[in-house]
Write a structure and sequence with these properties.
Oligomer: heterodimer
Shape of chain A: elongated
Number of strands of chain B: 12
Largest sheet of chain A: 4 strands, mixed
Helix content of chain A: 25-40%
Helix content of chain B: 25-40%
Order of helices and strands of chain B: HEHEEHEHEEHHEHEHEHEEE
CATH topology of chain A: Aldehyde Oxidoreductase, domain 3
Strand order of the largest sheet of chain B: 3-2-1-4-6-5-7
Largest sheet of chain B: 7 strands, mixed
CATH superfamily of the largest domain in chain B: Spore Coat Polysaccharide Biosynthesis Protein SpsA, Chain A
Strand content of chain B: 15-25%
Structural class of chain A: alpha+beta
CATH topology of the largest domain in chain B: Spore Coat Polysaccharide Biosynthesis Protein SpsA, Chain A
CATH class of chain A: Alpha Beta
CATH architecture of chain A: Alpha-Beta Complex
CATH superfamily of chain A: Molybdopterin biosynthesis MoaE subunit
Shape of chain B: elongated
Distance between the termini of chain B: 39 Å
Radius of gyration of chain A: 16 Å
Radius of gyration of chain B: 23 Å
Order of helices and strands of chain A: EHEEHEEEHEE
CATH class of the largest domain in chain B: Alpha Beta
């Protein structure tokens, strides 16, 4: 189980932690990876994510623990991007590994839903015209 | 709060040492006053006084009796014990013995002249502001009178005493004051430091008497009895310090990411109201849109604070 916040492109970060992700546990029969991305919008230039790392860790751990228990999955990893994120870049990366695909999909959905409800992360849209506002 | 670096600010290059007095018998309190929890802080009174003096002094010592030296709450602090020669052959004890012993002991170590900032551990309302005021006044006087060097002690006029007595237990003593204090002790056998300072003031004009800053008039209250102490502990219910973190629209409104807040109240409604008054949060977001967390966990606004928690008011989140 891992909860990580990064201030660089998640794609680049993933290559650094590749070796630490369990790939070899025999019991794993299905892995679901969810990627959230900053989508293209005519007006939006970039997104700024602000978050309280301490509380992200506490709340993130509660979410992942609950997912692992509730769906009896083998492992879960959650990475959230902070700082400025360009269109097309990843904002979140969730990996659920389970015996079967059903639990892997269900737990992935459970985690992203709870992230949106509980993680203290705020999003500010920076527009092409130079204006910006917090999404509330 | 600005902290003094006396190496830069002290114009005659005197070092300032600190001395916390904990040697009293605390008979009326029934327990060592230094060991008692500070009425509003999460540390004992000795720890509070020691940390406070450390902000201003080159080194801080604790004045205590030899028989206290192994007490668990004391043993890790640098101590100066009462020296026999100042006890009039064991006849007296009290703060003046601690002050004279310390002036004597520190002089042997540092050789140069120095000033001693003295604070009794049972004055929990003395804070950084009060000490800074005292030190600044002392240094200004020294500067103005460097030739004649008239004032050897700077102290506050204690407004809680009947005739505006000098307060000797929150004061600065230059090393040169030692010989005068010693004279009064040895020759007149006067051991009350308040009387000693009055004599120094009236007969020798050696004392710089300072009026407390207007907002700190209660700073010299001291707590001697269990009843007093309980009364001051009760006030704790109304005065709480918490760390508050600000993010997103609230961070923009306050212009800072976190701060310590000292406020009157018990729960998060009270804290919110206090902050709303200070920063006008309601101009940018209504209270019913905010959630709140204490120590990284979501709680209700009715949550009762104890003090020292980290609080975050949470505007609508948008992670994922």
């Amino acid at each position: 189980m891992k909860i990580i916040t990064v201030e660089e492109d998640i794609i680049n970060f993933l290559s650094q932690i590749e070796n630490t992700i369990e790939n070899t546990i025999d019991e794993v029969g299905g892995v679901v990876i969810f990627e959230g991305r900053v989508r293209r919008d005519l007006d939006v230039h970039s997104i700024e994510y602000q978050g309280d790392k301490e509380m992200i860790f506490v709340q993130g751990e509660m979410i992942l623990k609950e997912a692992i228990e509730k769906f009896q999955i083998i492992d879960a990893i959650l990475i959230h991007r902070l700082g400025y994120v360009k269109v097309g870049e990843l904002s979140i990366w969730i990996r659920c590994s389970a015996k079967h695909r059903k639990e892997a999909y269900a737990s992935s959905q459970f985690i992203i839903d709870n992230v949106k409800k509980l993680l203290p992360i705020w999003k500010k849209e920076h527009l092409q015209n130079g204006e910006s506002h917090w999404i509330m | 709060m600005m902290r003094m670096n006396n190496n830069n600010n002290n114009n005659n290059n005197n070092k300032i040492f600190g001395l916390v007095l904990v040697g009293g018998k605390s008979e009326r309190m029934g327990t060592d006053k230094g060991q008692l929890k500070h009425p509003h802080q999460d540390q004992h009174q000795l720890g509070y006084s020691y940390d406070l003096l450390s902000n201003f002094c080159d080194k801080v010592f604790v004045s205590c009796r030899e028989d206290q030296k192994e007490l668990p709450y004391l043993k890790d602090y640098p101590q100066i014990h009462d020296q026999h020669e100042f006890t009039l052959e064991g006849k007296i004890r009290g703060p003046i013995v601690g002050i004279l012993s310390s002036l004597n002991k520190i002089k042997i170590e540092v050789k140069d002249d120095f000033s001693l900032l003295v604070l009794a551990c049972d004055m929990p309302y003395v804070d950084e502001k009060v000490l800074q005021y005292l030190i600044q006044s002392h240094q200004q006087q020294q500067q103005q009178q460097q030739e004649s060097k008239n004032f050897l002690v700077s102290c506050f006029i204690n407004p809680d005493t009947d005739k505006a007595w000098p307060e000797p237990l929150c004061a600065i003593y230059d090393y040169s004051a030692k010989k005068y204090l010693q004279e009064i002790l040895f020759e007149r056998e006067i051991k009350c430091p308040r009387k000693m300072l009055s004599i120094l003031l009236e007969e020798k004009k050696l004392v710089n008497m300072i009026k407390l800053p207007a907002s700190s008039e209660k700073a010299l209250l001291n707590i001697n009895t269990k009843e007093d102490y309980e009364k001051h502990r009760e006030l704790r219910d109304m005065n709480i310090t918490v760390k508050v973190k600000y993010y997103a629209i609230l961070g923009e409104k306050t212009g800072i990411s976190e701060e310590n807040i000292f406020f009157k109240g018990k729960n998060l409604h009270h804290l919110y109201n206090f902050l709303d008054q200070k920063y006008q949060f309601s101009n940018v977001i209504s209270k019913d849109k905010l959630r709140v967390a204490v120590n990284s966990r979501y709680v209700d606004f009715d949550y009762i604070l104890e003090g020292a928690e980290t609080v975050m008011f949470i505007p609508p989140i948008a992670g994922g």
